[in-house]
From TrEMBL:
Leader sequence residues: 1-19
Keywords: Signal
Lineage, top ranks: Bacteria, Pseudomonadati, Bacteroidota, Sphingobacteriia, Sphingobacteriales
Keyword Signal: yes
PROSITE patterns (alphabetical): PROKAR_LIPOPROTEIN
Protein name, per record: Uncharacterized protein
Source organism superkingdom: Bacteria
């Protein structure tokens, strides 16, 4: 019976997978803009400060490096338009 228990234990451990690491090694909350890394939270606060839109109403689009308003999806806010004015 012990042999069967050990067999299942070894089998379970051998089939378990490890979490795949991001290939670029950069955390998901870091974005690169004009060659400089920024924390996503800090960028969101700056966009909120410039636009007057509450932080919780901004939705980040990682693919386009932009934000949209949670209720107005047609409203696209490009980070590059505000980047020169950031105080981060």
């Amino acid at each position: 019976m012990k042999k069967l228990l050990y067999l299942f234990l070894v089998l379970g451990l051998s089939l378990s997978s490890c979490k795949k690491e991001d290939s670029n090694g950069k955390p998901e909350n870091i974005i690169t803009l004009d060659g400089k890394d920024y924390e996503l939270e800090a960028v969101t606060r700056e966009i909120s400060r410039f636009t007057g839109i509450a932080v919780e109403d901004l939705v980040f689009d990682k693919e386009n490096l932009s934000y949209t308003h949670v209720r107005y999806s047609d409203m696209v806010i490009k980070i590059s338009d505000y980047l020169p004015h950031f105080e981060i």
